[in-house]
Specification:
75% helix
C-alpha cells in the first residue's frame, strides 16, 4: 500500500512539474510559442510513460494538441489526468 501511495504522489509532483514546464512559454511572448514545437511531442511521450494503455494514448494525443496550439498552454493536462486517474477513477487494489 505504501508503494502505491508513494507512486501516486510522485506522479502528482511530476504532473505539476511538467505542467509548469509547459506554461513556461508564457514567460517569453511570441518566442515562447515556438518552444511548444519542441515541448509538444516530449509532453505527449511523457504522458504515455506516466499512464499506460489506451488511457495514456488518448491523454498523450490531447496533451500534444493542447501544447501545440498557441494560447492553450494554460490548461494543466498532466494534473487533470492525475486527478482523473487518482480521484475520479480511483486505484485498483
Amino acid at each position: 500500500m505504501s508503494k502505491i501511495k508513494d507512486s501516486k504522489f510522485k506522479n502528482l509532483f511530476l504532473s505539476l512539474l511538467y505542467d509548469a514546464i509547459g506554461m513556461l512559454s508564457f514567460v517569453v511572448p511570441f518566442i515562447g510559442d515556438f518552444s511548444d514545437i519542441i515541448w509538444a511531442p516530449i509532453a505527449a511521450w511523457l504522458m504515455t510513460r506516466m499512464y499506460k494503455g489506451r488511457k495514456g494514448q488518448v491523454a498523450a494525443a490531447v496533451t500534444f494538441v493542447e501544447e501545440i496550439v498557441p494560447g492553450l498552454d494554460i490548461i494543466p493536462m498532466f494534473t487533470i489526468m492525475w486527478i482523473y486517474t487518482h480521484v475520479f477513477k480511483g486505484e485498483k487494489k
